[in-house]
Design brief:
It is a single chain. This protein is an alpha/beta fold. It folds into 2 domains: 393 residues, Amidase signature (AS) enzymes, CATH 3.90.1300.10; 66 residues, no CATH class. 38% of the residues lie in helices and 12% in strands. It contains 15 helices and 11 strands. It has an 11-stranded mixed sheet with strand order 1-3-2-4-6-5-10-11-9-7-8, with helices on both faces. Helix 2 packs antiparallel against helix 3. The two termini are 23 Å apart.
């Protein structure tokens, strides 16, 4: 087995025993990137820097003072800043932008001796559910290159699934870590809003964005989460709490826990094989001693509409800074200031980003603010109340992550509304600011992965991952 295929817990043990060198791990990942270039999972790869870092980490391992992530080779979604490297957001607008500073999460993982392999592909400005809107071309599914890996963190999910890196970072605004994790068959966690610093994350929708890990096991995702969590005074939304102690809870099991199945998440539109897999997961949890009960989240039907009003409104505001004047793409064919704005934004943004900017500008405009934006904020409150009431009856919720398994490239690109429905089971979590994880559980008749989503109350990452660990173990034995 190639070192690139090892989960981090196994990898770290072999590194500490001297059976592997860190350089071998990095070289194995680079080899996987080269061998499967058709996946287009990476926008940029920093091979020489990664190999240099490998030698430094190797010395620390030999001295016994290496960090918690020593030898973990990481891909980083290309909307997370790394000093001295390009941060493109998958857009022509920032195709040549070099960040002068690193995000807080990057500082934290480097302090624990992780090795950065490169920046992963993504839907442009994180706006998409299939990784087809990237200026650098679509990422392809590792199992079937004619299918999508999900989005917008599709490059991160595909890279992890294809063993091109040990783990990766993504961002989740409406399901952009969990949905590609489900489609690619890896673990993806969206932490509670405010749990992980957003400093250095290029904003899409500031009240919804959250950075999260993607990995091949619950343990690896939990370890990475512990490292990146924590208060950051540079992020005004950062919550001043101690990082969660997740790893010590992973072996506790689920006996006595109450698992809720929201009836609204099993309505029409759900692929039958996905439905059966999630119901099978519920039976497995019952076998392990949990109590499964049906609950209701009555405002679920309004979640997609609410999300796409609020997210586009915030995107319209956040993306106003890309005007061709200060940084980013500037059209070479402009003659006046107004012409520069018009041409730079028209040429610099792709169709999906322009669609969302226009929608967001519309709902914020005079005469429509009350009818759309203000009403959506009220519905967001109702959606959050639904979850609060549900958690009075259960400890966590079990749902599908995506209504279908991976679909074909181009299948939904011409119908934005159909594409938006890919996030029907994930957007509510962001609207409510809750933690949720997707883990692989079963496959469909084509062999494509199915994701099970576990949702918990605010700041209950340890509980969510505790249930995920039990379900992961059950999935391996079945």
């Amino acid at each position: 087995m190639s070192p690139a295929e090892l989960d981090y817990r196994t990898l770290r043990a072999r590194l500490e025993r001297g059976e592997l060198r860190v350089r071998e791990v990095v070289e194995a990942c680079l080899d996987m990137v080269e061998r499967r270039k058709e996946l287009n999972a990476f926008i940029s790869v920093q091979a020489e820097a990664a190999l240099r870092q490998a030698e430094i980490v190797e010395q620390r391992l030999r001295k016994g003072n290496a960090g918690r992530l020593a030898g973990m080779v990481l891909g980083v979604k290309d909307n997370i800043a790394i000093a001295g490297g390009r941060t493109t957001c998958g857009s022509r607008m920032l195709a040549n932008y070099v960040s002068p500073y690193s995000a807080t999460v990057i500082e934290r993982i480097l302090a624990e001796d992780a090795i950065l392999l490169g920046k992963t592909n993504m839907d442009e400005f994180a706006m998409g559910s299939s990784n087809e809107t990237s200026y650098f071309g679509p990422t392809r599914h590792p199992k079937d290159p004619e299918r999508v890996p999900g989005g917008s963190s599709g490059g991160s999910a595909a890279a992890v699934a294809a063993c091109q890196c040990t783990a990766a970072l993504g961002s989740d605004t409406g399901g952009s870590v969990r949905q590609p994790a489900a489609l690619c068959g890896v673990v993806g966690l969206k932490p509670t809003y405010g749990r992980v610093s957003r400093y250095g994350l290029v904003a899409f929708a500031s009240s919804l964005d959250q950075i999260g890990p993607l990995a091949r096991t619950v343990y690896d995702a939990s370890l990475l989460t512990e490292v990146i969590c924590g208060y950051d005074p540079r992020d005004s939304t950062s919550v001043n709490l101690e990082p969660p102690a997740i790893l010590q809870k992973l072996e506790k099991g689920v006996r006595g826990l109450r698992i809720g199945l929201p009836r609204e998440y099993f309505a029409s539109g759900l692929q039958e094989e996905v439905r059966e897999a999630i119901l099978s997961a519920a039976r497995s949890l019952e076998t392990l001693g949990a109590h499964v009960t049906e609950v209701s989240l009555p405002h679920t039907e309004y979640a997609i509409a609410t999300y796409y009003i609020l997210a586009t409104a915030e995107a319209s505001s956040n993306l106003a800074r890309y005007d061709g004047a200060r940084y980013g793409y500037r059209s070479p064919r402009c003659s006046t200031l107004e012409d520069m704005y018009f041409r730079s934004r028209s040429e610099g943004f792709g169709p999906e980003v322009k669609r969302r900017i226009m929608l967001g500008t519309y709902v914020l405009s005079a005469g429509y603010y009350e009818a759309y934006y203000r009403k959506a904020q009220k519905v967001r409150t109702l959606i959050r109340r639904d979850f609060l009431e549900a958690f009075e009856k259960c400890d966590v919720l079990l749902t599908p992550t995506s209504p279908t398994t991976a679909f074909r490239i181009g299948e939904k690109l011409g119908d934005p509304l159909t594409m938006y429905l890919s996030d029907v089971y994930t957007v509510s979590v962001n609207l409510a600011g809750l933690p949720a994880v997707s883990i692989p559980f079963g496959r469909d008749s084509r062999g494509l992965p199915i994701g099970a989503q576990i949702i918990g109350p605010t700041f209950a990452e340890a509980l969510v991952m505790q249930v995920a660990a039990a379900l992961e173990q059950e999935g391996r034995t079945n």
